[in-house]
Amino acid sequence: MFTPVTAEFFHAPTLELSRKLLGQILVHELPEGIVAGRIVETEAYMGAEDRAAHSFGNRRTKRTEIMFGKPGLVYTYQMHTHTLINVVSGPVDTPRAILIRAVEPVEGIELMAERRGKHMPMKNWTSGPGKLTKAMAITMDHYGSHFSEKPLYIAQGDPVHAVSVGPRVGIGNSLEAVDYPYRFWETENPFVSKFR
DNA sequence: AATTCGATGGGCT
DNA sequence: GCCCATCGAATTT
């Protein structure tokens, strides 16, 4: 079974934590069973100084409020018809966050299949930030919970051997921030959303 | 009050 | 590759 990491796990600089999250297990305990996926792709959003971040310039709204809170909090938001999930990072009042962009299914395959359609190949179930939230039944109801507490939490996984680094996806109008190397993924892992 | 736009994904051409 | 779904926030009227 899985055990949540402690809150101290999240007390690391944002870019370091982005790498450290690779290989950890994202777990959701549902009434009908457990779904879990190994994190294989993340992106760091560096708060007030990062034009691509929702909290750029310390912008504080009902949506971004959680980014100013403690590390390890869950920041979910809607992108068109999809829910995306982030790990809040940085000290309190330093509004940084890490987007979880892809996971590799490790448990609850049947439950994920029900949500993602049995006809679609498994590599398409969780290979993108909107896909994995649907596969794992993550919704806006999780906004503000903590990744060290059930039912939605992070558990320790196997170490990642090779990490690739590159620019973030889908932030084309963020001026100087477009090429910042804030995206991290497990090299060659087939569940990564995109290659460059 | 209305409009614009995005850290996206799926279906169709 | 193009189009659309349809959410919250910021900007404009």
UniProtKB/TrEMBL annotation:
Q: Where does the source fall among the domains of life?
A: Bacteria
First-tier enzyme category under EC: hydrolase
Parts forming coiled coils:
none
Give the UniProt family note.
Belongs to the DNA glycosylase MPG family.
SUPFAM superfamilies in the cross-refs: FMT C-terminal domain-like
Q: Which organism is it from?
A: Planomicrobium stackebrandtii
Tell me the first and last residues of the signal peptide. none
One annotated GO molecular function is: alkylbase DNA N-glycosylase activity
Identify this protein by name.
Answer: Putative 3-methyladenine DNA glycosylase
Q: Which UniProt keywords apply?
A: DNA damage, DNA repair, Glycosidase, Hydrolase
Q: What is its EC number?
A: 3.2.2.-
Q: Name one Pfam family in it.
A: Pur_DNA_glyco
